Amino acid sequence: MILIEGRFFVAFIQSTKNFFAKINKQEQLIRESEKRSAQPVIYVKRFPSRKAFFQVGMLFSIASLLVSSAIYFF
Question: Of 1, 45, 36, which is closest to residue 18 (Cα–Cα)?
């Protein structure tokens, strides 16, 4: 979840596109003729609260323990 929220994959895809655009001669000529530059990769350093993930994880753990105990003993 942290990788998705941090837009890791978007930045990875943009970096890969920029890399292949730089080594592709045809793409270089198109960029020069259109006078456009490479798109900068934007990184977001805002992550969701780990406390919330921990609380939800504990809630699911307790709920699954209760349900499995109920099924086993009844």
Answer: 36
